[in-house]
Amino acid sequence: MSISVTALPNSRAAIQQRVAAGHITWTRPLAMLVSRTALFVLFQAAIGGIYALQGTPTPWDASAAWWPVTVTLANLTCIALLAWLARREGMRWWDLYRVERHRVGRELLILLGLSVIIAPAVQIPNIAVATWLFGDAQRAFDLFFRPLPLWAAYICLVLFPLTHVFAELPTYYGYTMPRLAALSGRRWVAIALAAFWHAAQHCALPLLFDWRFILWRLLMFLPLAFLMALILSWRPRLLPYMMVVHGLLDFPLVLMLLSP
Fold first, then answer.
1. Using an 8 Å Cβ cutoff, are 144 and 157 in contact?
2. Closest residue by Cα to residue 223 from 198, 243, 242, 247
3. Element (H, E) at 83
4. Is 152:50 a contact under the CB 8 Å cutoff?
5. How is the chain split among helix, strand and coil, in percent rounded to 5?
6. What are residue 92's DSSP bridge partners?
């Protein structure tokens, strides 16, 4: 079985041509690099403002529970931005997801093999860093997982993973990383920037003014982010497969909000 398209407007060669022609500059890729972090803070501040208007004594702390909503809103905004950026480069929105001619079975086997190192990169830093910083990992988890109204949790159960699939990995590795690589002429610069900001966005998810929580959120994602950046720089055609896996992993994360 093969997947094919007639053009590859998001290929490295096509991006380099647009950079050489001056159609791609540093401004937009760098802005997208920090966009999700800024959007998380912006939407959490908006929710905190609603709590403040209602007279809640600790509006910012109350807004932290709504991180699945802030992510969903940020995802929708990022999808709109990616569509706009694609049009600016003469592409279609879905061209950013880089489906090119390849053998699906081979890519699935490669992804299966990579899961051997991806799975530990997801789980081990999470628990190890939380235990190191808090003494008990559960204390960190309790700061992160907070109850939401059921109506909001059920909406996020659908919209959070669905929008996340098309927003997070494509922002860093479908749009930003290949353009930074072409602009800088150094792939390692693009890998480092994309991976760092991919991990750093989680510091604002939610943003709590507790240095241990911020450091935990950064360090727990750094190994995975650098691993993802290396894999997708080496084999960009894996992006659509990674997106699907990402969405499947996000579903049980939100499902935990429904647990008593």
1. no
2. 198
3. helix 67-88
4. no
5. 80, 0, 20
6. none
pLDDT digits (tens, 9 = 90+) for 129-169: 999 999 999 999 999 988 888 888 888 888 998 999 999 99
How far apart CA 128 and CA 216 sit, in angstroms, is 9
Which one-letter amino acid corresponds to residue 59? Answer: P
Residue matched to tokens 């940020």: 74
Q: What is the pTM of this model?
A: 0.91
Rounded Cα distance, 154 and 133, in Å: 32
Cβ atoms of 51 and 69 closer than 8 Å = no
Q: Tokens in use for 94?
A: 């879905």
Place of tokens 């403002």: 49
Contacts for 114 with CB less than 8 Å, ≥ 6 apart: 231
- The Cα angle at residue 43 between residues 195 and 145, in degrees rounded to 5: 70
Q: Which sequence spans correspond to the domains of the chain? A: 2-258
Cβ-based neighbour number of residue 89 at 10 Å: 18
